[in-house]
Design brief:
Mean pLDDT: 84
Distance between the termini: 18 Å
Order of helices and strands: HHHHHEEHHHHHHHHHH
Helix content: over 70%
Radius of gyration: 20 Å
Strand content: under 5%
Shape: globular
Number of strands: 2
Largest sheet: 2 strands, antiparallel
Strand order of the largest sheet: 1-2
Low-confidence stretches: none
Structural class: mainly alpha
């Protein structure tokens, strides 16, 4: 059995029911919109975010989920999908998970409007049901994701990202959404309890490890859907590179910055940068930091009684670090 199937097993029924509820949540009276959302739903990825919602909910409430849990999972997936649609416009990307992106098929104007529609559907799903605590969690996540993206753009221009700023960026850009999934799962069944904050922290730590792993792919040999060196070409300052810059001599540092700023489309130069980062121990350092976040997350989980849901979450943590793409 694939790892994802093993993780999903304790919430298989909930995930199947969720898919039906999610399709309904996306429906509209506009035929074009329905055609596009149908395209989106049929090209779903691993659905890790709703899985987090259901696994956390069942772990903290001894196997219990309720309608609020389904709404929480739907809201997070609507908001996540909206951000992906908007991201593809911002990045001028024509592919998403191997399929054409919305903007590639229906142009930017329609993609932006579809993203706005999904965002409003998510917010209204919470408002119409009085889930204001869940709405607050997701609204904070949307604000942080936007701030993280803008902070990264601002810093990429100057290439002056410190390790502390890098952690800020990935916490806001990536970790905040996984943190929201986990706190939504807890809040849906145990509102106003310490579980909500504890699970938020757990999700944030997993998200940090997840993003560092993503950054490591840029230096890998495997075919993972994005070409090696793409972050360097896009002048993204990731942890292996930041560590290397901090350790490098003034001469090497100047060469690295010049390579990233002025020669980032030269394949030979990008390969040289990758080799330099590997040799300087940038990857080893990033792996060590990633495992620290995993360890902290694991300690939070171990404070809960044993259950199939806890086991699945522990497996999810291992998957985040061991995955090949």
């Amino acid at each position: 059995m694939k790892v994802i199937e093993q993780i999903k097993a304790p919430v298989k029924y909930e995930m199947e029911l969720f898919e039906k509820k999610f399709s309904l949540a996306m429906s509209s009276r506009v035929a074009l919109l329905n055609r596009i959302t149908h395209y989106v739903v049929n090209r779903k990825g691993k659905q890790m975010r709703p899985m987090f919602v259901f696994l956390v909910s069942k772990m903290v409430a001894s196997g219990e989920v309720n309608e609020r849990t389904y709404r929480g999972a739907s809201v997070i997936e609507l908001i996540h999908t909206a951000t992906l649609v908007h991201d593809d416009v911002v990045d001028d990307s024509n592919r998403r998970r191997g399929f054409f992106s919305i903007n590639a098929l229906w142009k930017n104007k329609i993609a932006v409007l579809v993203g706005d529609y999904l965002l409003s559907k998510g917010l209204l799903l919470s408002i119409d049901n009085g889930d204001f605590d869940l709405l607050r969690i997701i609204s904070v996540a949307v604000r942080e994701m936007s701030e993280g993206e803008l902070l990264q753009i601002e810093k990429a221009r100057k290439l002056d990202i410190t390790e502390a700023v890098y952690y800020d960026i990935i916490r806001q850009k990536t970790a905040t959404l996984i943190a929201a999934c986990c706190s939504l799962g807890a809040a849906s069944v145990k509102p106003d309890t310490e579980h909500v904050e504890r699970m938020r922290k757990f999700g944030e730590l997993i998200g940090m490890a997840f993003q560092i792993k993503d950054d490591l792919f840029d230096y890998g040999e495997d075919k993972i859907g994005k070409p090696t060196g793409i972050d360097i070409k896009e002048q993204k300052m990731t942890l292996p590179l930041i560590y290397t810059l901090n350790q490098a001599s003034e001469k090497d540092r100047r060469w690295l910055i010049n390579s990233i700023k002025n020669h980032n489309t030269n394949k030979k130069r990008v390969k040289e940068v990758i080799a330099f980062v590997k040799q300087a121990g940038g990857l080893t350092y990033a792996v060590t930091q990633m495992k620290k976040y995993q360890q902290e997350a694991q300690e939070i989980l171990l404070s809960y009684p044993d259950s199939p849901y806890k086991e699945a979450l522990l497996l999810m943590m291992t998957y985040v670090i061991d995955r090949k793409k």
